[in-house]
Amino acid sequence: MNIINIEHIAKIYQVGLEEVRALRDVSLRIDKNEYVAIMGPSGSGKSTLMNMLGCLDTPTSGKYEFNSVNVSDMDDNDLARIRNKEIGFVFQTFNLLPRSDALHNVELPLIYAGVSYAERREKAQKALVDVGLADRVHHKPNELSGGQRQRVAVARALVTNPSIILADEPTGNLDSKTGEEIMQLFNDIHDKGNTIILVTHEEYIAEHAARIIRLKDGLVEKDEMVRDRKLPKLKVSV
Amino acid sequence: MRYLLFELKEGMMIAFRALKANKVRTSLTMLGIFIGITVVVLMSTAIKGINNSFQEGISALGSDVLYIDKWAWFSNEEWWKLRNRKSITMSDYEHFKSLAKLPLAVAPVINSQQTVKIGDKRVDGVFLNGSNADYVKTTNFTFDQGRFYNEVESNASRQVAVVGSEIAKQLFPRGDALDKTIKIGNANFKIVGVLAEQGSFILGPFNPDNQVFIPIGTIFKNFIAEHRGTVTFNVRAPNPALLEETKAEAEGVMRKVRGLKYDEENDFSINQQDGLMENYNSVVGVIQIAGLFITGLSLFVGAIGIMNIMFVSVRERTKEIGIRKAIGARKRTILTQFLLESSAICLLGGIAGLLAAILGSMMLNQYFPTSIQVDAVIIAIGVSAITGILSGLAPAYTASKLDPVESLRYE
């Protein structure tokens, strides 16, 4: 069954008097437990597509079905609920709350989901252990390394047990070794049955995925399966 | 409903986290509300205190007493018209007393201002009250020591005096006033009674505490020639309910005493403390409203400070708002969070201000009557909460409307 079913969506921005067609006509389907990379040069519309997939934005035209529910014309509150329950975000710049410790950052989506204090503490704790940060629970972001911060962000994305993990250039702010570690973490997450959508412009990062969708000028240029998929070299303790 | 409570609780925790993270800014912002609430509460307690003591003072005068006088306390008449009225004399008094049936007591009163001395201690400008033994029946006086002068003493115009508590305190700090002889003007008077504390400071020289009471005959003998003074009758109704009837009777009797024809205007006035209260309210009420308004302005300035800070805070935390929205915070959640933050600032500032005002009024109480009432507490807390919500409303709304994509991109 499809988790994501997009049919002919377009997104047009009005910049001054000019119309910018960020997405012209994109259709795609993503199944459960797929590992998809979305690639494309800047201006190709991949950020717009990602915002659309993440329910942060709605298309100008076309249909977007998420878990068979049409989200293309939902209001802000319903979109917020979908983001909270169904989507886990991982951003290039981590986007953690700077003044809160790792545990609070991870429990934040659970607060918005209305989970009680004791339960969400436990879940957040477990999510942090799962990403290998058992001993960093009460550290604030500025006391953590870049890789550790991104692990906190991954834990936050996973803690609500979402339908998809949406990662936007997750290694963009990391050195290559740390980046590789994060990619292995994604592989592990994928192996556990999660659906991952990865947005990147780095070929070697995209090669971790099983399927690569290439965008150009707001259109899907190529949609292909990866033949020699990169698999983790070293096992990260999970 | 349950979710709403949950949201409130979590919002509160988030708000306190944010306030704690910005201690200096939070406390400076709070200071505005703190000062506002302090002055407003202090002002209102002072007003209340003054009102209370005025009311006490007035009721010490007796709410059931009429004052028949040549002069009107409050009147639109031309001053010279009142001045040209005939003086009220002691024979008017005798005549009135014999005709008026309703009053519980009628006492003639004439006042003079004199210096009172004992040894090297002196009090200048003391209000001397000259009357007769019935005077005490027109008041609610209580005595610290001794008694009021009696009928024999007043009829014989003996040189005896009853002193108010404040005068006694000043002349006899050790409290041994009774039976001492004091000098009033150039005459000697023996103290036969000392009043317990009666009234309130607000009445000034009219406060019995600051007065000396002597038989009316001794006033005529020593201070004012009888034909030059005009006497006031203090007429006490048998009970407050009969005040109006007593007044009506007094007017009729007085017209007869003064020999007025049916078409002639009264050449006397019947005053009562109602008028005093009305007059007080009309003058002091305006001052009170002005005072509250001015102190209220300082609270308003504090509120603007909060609004300003909240706008800055929203701008500064645009990214945070974006993150929260991306991971599922709804518009309402963000709105609540910022409203709670501004309310918390106001409430904390308000409570601190209230405590300061309570302390302040305790200190002021030594010089000045103040009284902190429960309603002042409720109003202070209510006002600060409302201030918080109102001043947070616009910034919180701005925050809740932010677009998640744009605010995530904000650096």
Question: In a nutshell, what does this entry contain?
Answer:
The complex is a heterodimer of chains A (about 240) and B (about 400). Chain A has about 240 residues and is of the alpha/beta class.
Protein described:
- The complex is a heterodimer of chains A (about 240) and B (about 400).
- Chain A is of the alpha/beta class and about 240 residues long.
- Chain A has one domain: P-loop containing nucleotide triphosphate hydrolases (Rossmann fold), CATH 3.40.50.300.
- Helices cover about 35% and strands about 30% of the residues of chain A.
- Chain A contains seven helices and ten strands.
- Chain A is globular and about 50 Å long.
- With about 400 residues, chain B is of the alpha+beta class.
- Chain B has two domains: about 1-55 and about 280-410, no CATH class; about 65-270, no CATH class.
- Helix content of chain B is about 55%, strand content about 15%.
- Chain B is built from 13 helices and ten strands.
- Chain B has helices at about 1-20, 25-60, 80-85, 90-100, 150-155, 165-170, 215-220, 245-255, 275-315, 320-325, 330-365, 375-400, 405-410, and strands at about 65-70, 105-120, 120-130, 145, 160-165, 180-185, 185-195, 210-215, 230-235, 270.
- Chain B is elongated, with a radius of gyration of 32 Å.
- Chains A and B meet through α2 and α3 of A and α1, α10, α11 and α13 of B.
Give me some keywords for this one.
heterodimer, A: 238 residues, alpha/beta, 4-stranded antiparallel sheet, 29% strand, globular, disordered C terminus, B: 411 residues, elongated
SSE blueprint:
The complex is a heterodimer of chains A (238) and B (411).
Chain A: E1 2-15, E2 18-31, E3 35-39, H1 46-53, E4 61-66, E5 69-70, H2 76-86, E6 87-90, H3 102-113, H4 117-130, H5 146-158, E7 164-168, H6 176-191, E8 195-200, H7 203-206, E9 211-216, E10 219-225
Parallel strand pairs in A: 3-8, 3-9, 6-7, 7-8
Antiparallel strand pairs in A: 1-2, 1-4, 4-5, 9-10
Chain B: H1 2-21, H2 23-61, E1 65-69, H3 79-83, H4 90-99, E2 105-118, E3 121-131, E4 143-146, H5 151-155, E5 160-163, H6 165-171, E6 181-184, E7 187-195, E8 211-215, H7 216-222, E9 232-236, H8 243-257, E10 269-272, H9 273-316, H10 318-326, H11 331-364, H12 374-401, H13 404-409
Parallel strand pairs in B: 3-8, 5-7
Antiparallel strand pairs in B: 1-9, 1-10, 2-3, 2-6, 2-9, 4-7, 5-8, 6-7
